[in-house]
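A reminder from the course coordinator: this example appears on the midterm review sheet, so study it carefully.

Given structure:
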């Protein structure tokens, strides 16, 4: 089976990429699979796209192979787009999903339902040695719940209610999430490359 390296250490992302790339008969390897420890890549870009490119190019350069990377997060309109590209570290450097979503709920505690609009954003970059890097964005619109619900998924899934649903993302099965998610929308936009390359 063909392989694709995804430059991420996030186990939740890896699981979703694995499932979605299996449909193309591609086996996903992540930075969690490497024997040699790979230091944290500094994500100092100003956008999801820039950060995805930084991660993909760092690993493509190091191993001289094609690499995809995902930079993603939650944009909340009532917070001026925060946490945005700072989603992973919103409540501190320890990247704690529970603390992050509690911080969001705290900041939205006086925001009424109709003003709790938000979206998940995912930029997927593909870096290839000797070729130009490209990047695509997928989004998933929704609202922020009053309290966390559900155990599926990861990150902010327990507080994000996708449009046209009354359940949080963490109350959706992985199959359901993978058919509507920001990550899925981004992968669809790189499908042409996937089919050409593999
Ligand atoms: O489907 C999702 N469902 C819920 N939450 C999500 C999702 N997708 C991203 N998120 C949140 C998790 C984290 O707070 C941030 C990603 O931050 P981001 O820097 O891209 O990833 P990360 O540091 O966890 O791993 P890595 O950089 O190694 O890929 O957005
Ligand atoms: Mg990160």
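Designed residues:
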């Amino acid at each position: 089976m063909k392989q694709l390296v995804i430059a991420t250490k996030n186990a939740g992302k890896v699981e979703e990429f694995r499932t979605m790339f299996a449909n193309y008969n591609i086996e996903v390897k992540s930075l969690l699979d490497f024997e040699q420890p790979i230091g944290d890549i500094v994500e100092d870009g100003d956008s999801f796209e820039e950060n995805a490119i930084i991660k993909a190019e760092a690993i493509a350069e190091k191993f001289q192979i094609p690499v995809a990377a995902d930079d993603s997060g939650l944009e909340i309109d009532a917070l001026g787009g925060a946490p945005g590209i700072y989603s992973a570290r919103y409540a501190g450097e320890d990247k704690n999903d529970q603390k992050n979503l509690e911080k969001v709920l705290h900041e939205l505690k006086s925001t009424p339902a109709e003003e709790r609009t938000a979206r998940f954003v995912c930029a997927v970059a593909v870096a290839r040695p000797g070729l130009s890097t490209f990047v695509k964005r997928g989004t998933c619109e929704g609202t922020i719940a009053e309290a966390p619900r559900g155990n599926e998924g990861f990150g902010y899934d327990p507080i994000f209610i996708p449009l046209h649903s009354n359940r949080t993302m963490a109350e959706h099965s992985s199959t359901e999430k993978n058919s509507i998610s920001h990550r899925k929308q981004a992968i669809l936009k790189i499908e042409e490359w996937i089919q050409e390359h593999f």
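The first helix runs from residue 11 to 22. DSSP finds six helices and six strands in the chain.
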